[in-house]
Amino acid sequence: MFMLEKAVVGSRRYWIWVGCLLAVILAGFLCYLLQLKEGLGITGMSRDVSWGLYIAQFTFFVGVAASAVMVVLPYYLHNYKAFGKITILGEFLAVSAVTMCMLFIFVDMGQPMRVLNVMLHPTPHSMMFWDMVSLSGYLFLNALISYVMLESEREGVAPPHWIKPIILLSIPWAVSIHTVTAFLYNGLPGRAFWLTAILAPRFLASAFAAGPALLILLAMVIRKLTKFDAGSEAIQKLALIVTYAMLINVFFVLMEVFTSLYSNIPEDAAHLKFLFVGLDGNTELVPWMWTSVTFAILSLVLLIVPRYRKNEKLLAFTCVIVFLSLWIDKGIGLIIGGFIPSPLETVTSYVPTLPEMTIVASIWAIGMLMITVFYKIALSVRHQLA
Amino acid sequence: MSIDRRKFLGVAAGASALVLAGKASVDALASGSGPKQGGTLANTRWAMVIDPAKCLKDKGCTACIAACDKVHNIPDFKNPKHAVKWIWKEPFKDAFPGQEDEYTTEQYKDKPFILMCNHCNNPPCVRVCPTQATFRREDGIVMMDWHRCIGCRYCMAACPYGSRSFNWLDPRPHIAHLDTDFPTRTKGVVEKCTFCEERLARGEGPACVEACEAKAMVFGNLDDPDSEVRHLLKARFSIRRNPELGTQPEIYYLV
Lengths: 386, 255
Hints:
By secondary structure, chain A is mostly helical. Chain A is built from 14 helices and no strands.
């Protein structure tokens, strides 16, 4: 059934890893039961900072999901053969990341039992309705594509012809999920930090850096653990994509900084001040944001200089700091920073609580478990397990 | 309201067509036109005019807030981060950000102003709500359906006035005096001022207006040219909160 039988046989090391992930998932599940009983008051969120780590993580992982297009597009549109082996890894990464996004949204709901009201009362003037449409569509497309492609690979036959248009459809669809996610924020009149037309392009640029960086790391881990080798050409091409995307992302951020600070409109500048120097004595996110900036600058040096980029050991480190830099920028700063100060210019502290962080960790663990199982199935089909 | 698959697809297809239709679609998206609620008066647009000078005569007075809290079963969470507020006070500089300057408003800067839901004519909260749990009635009242709200808090992100509160915990143990004539809320839903629509339906005015001894708040129908609110707005200059955002608030502050 769906080749899942290949996931339930494995080495001792495989089962220890799966066991660890399941333990984290269980811990998060127990914390979620607590949240279900007590309410979202067990998190660090408040009247003024009404979205926190859950929505911030959702935003970041929409980007990871969308980035699958960076392997799908060169392979299917430009017939770039070097990506042939890792395309399926990208699609499985997308499936896992979209699932994580949906879980992050779900745990953020005050009344999760009513969440299907979004479908019962479809509301086209709400961007959240469109986000649901685009995310579930993207999940369906990628699940279908990766299953059909892998199944034909197992049978040793050419993939059916009807899958090609579906693959092509998944390319603009990937762009749409992150665009609509940006629209969630940048259509809100009272939130100056998000009220910027460059939010969607910036989301896409950071996604196309963070996602392929993660894919490079995954390919390297798999190469260590199994007989599967994505090939250095594919890894180097992905590194080049990360380089350009990261450059464009940093450029977009600097445009944002210039517009806000040079225009000196108080409500625009206040959010950047809160993030980078602190506001009203609150400097909670300042060390995080400067870490992100430092990692971004360092990673650009390591990416742009060809000698450094081609050194795969160094490239692994570079990919880690690219991912961390963007995770801080988008998975923390962008959402929390949008709420502080509030439209009434109050600065409210937000620190996630332990149960909240455990729930976040468990959704990460679910994502990693999905990646593990999917990749194991894919590699079993190719008889490339160690 | 029930909906079958065919109707759902119909709405989705209709919406897609709208998006392709250019300007019309922009208007449709921006107007946040949800289903209209029946049973409200025609030719009615409820609004409130607040005279801060009268209100400020007794700075310690919280009669309006107390009256609202009482009739609406507003919980009192000790933690300000979890506060539920339908009507509250905020210093001028926070209520009207960007309006303060060094001299002219010195006397006002830190003075508490009465704030509540603005019942905007063009409410961003209604536009973003994914379930139409918050909607604008024909008489201008922006309402909440506490049974439909999924607690996504998108409306709180959209409201530029901080007028929306979320029940972070179960509110019921935190209600000082339970009024059995008004519903309590469950945890995980958003709530806010409703202009006392339950009292309006009985022919009474909002509780806060009734409780104000200084008569600093006047409630009335803007569509009636002879109403007191219309006379006040004609006779005196008034300001609204963040008018540049195009939300068209229905709470006016006399200068």
